[in-house]
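Human: I hope this is not a bother. Would you mind checking the protein record under this note? Thank you for your patience.
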Amino acid sequence: MSGSALFIAVFLACIVEAVEALTIILAAGTARDWRSAIIGLFAGLLTLAVIIAALGPAVSAIPLGGLRLFVGGLLLVFGLQWLRKAILRASGNKALHDEALIFKTELAAAQQALPERRGLVADWYAFTLSFKGVVLEGLEVAFIALTFGSNQHNIPLAATAAAAAVLLVAAVGVAVRAPLARVPENSMKFIVGIMLTAFGMFWGAEGAGAHWPGSDAALLVLIPAIGLYALAMVALFRHKPANTGAVPVAMATSHGGTHS
């Protein structure tokens, strides 16, 4: 796997998580109190830094074969979950992920919550909403960066890609102070789901002792093959009756929940 492929895979996956975290923070700050939301943001980042500092060396210490088997299995489960939802959305059997709607939902819930001051935090609801959003989405970013980076023995490059994605989304979010509804998030999730599934299959098989023909070049066949299969599933499900009970995707309000 080349450095550029590693960077792109981590960057795209992390952009999706960063957009979702930004939506939560914006809702907390807009509806409640920006100072409390920002304190929650930095508290979440500090918590993530501690977790990453503890997990980073532990992940790197695992033997390569065991690491690839373990990480491959996790990525496969993670990727298949994303890909399943992406196929259902693309085929019309599940509502598209709508960041603008999620923002409105979070905003309405935040406006209804009663104000509560705790210590230096003027609005505890805004703090906890922002904190949970950063930690939950940030853990997924950290997982992606650590697993991809460890498998390729290039954690610095994976971390750089993750940081670039987060900084880009943060910069745009600060500039517009609105959810990034124009980001083609559903298409990105479809692509990322394909890539995570492919890497999960590739690394899991290698960790189990299998040898791919052409080594890393096998990914050039594996990724398009999974992509074609996913598109075939989209075409197949489009010919089936749509799920009339599908509702727009919205995060669990007041809990900072996430949805891929």
User: Anything to note?
Assistant: The helical segments are 3-31, 34-61, 64-90, 99-112, 124-151, 155-176, 185-207, 219-238. The radius of gyration is 19 Å. DSSP finds eight helices and no strands in the chain.
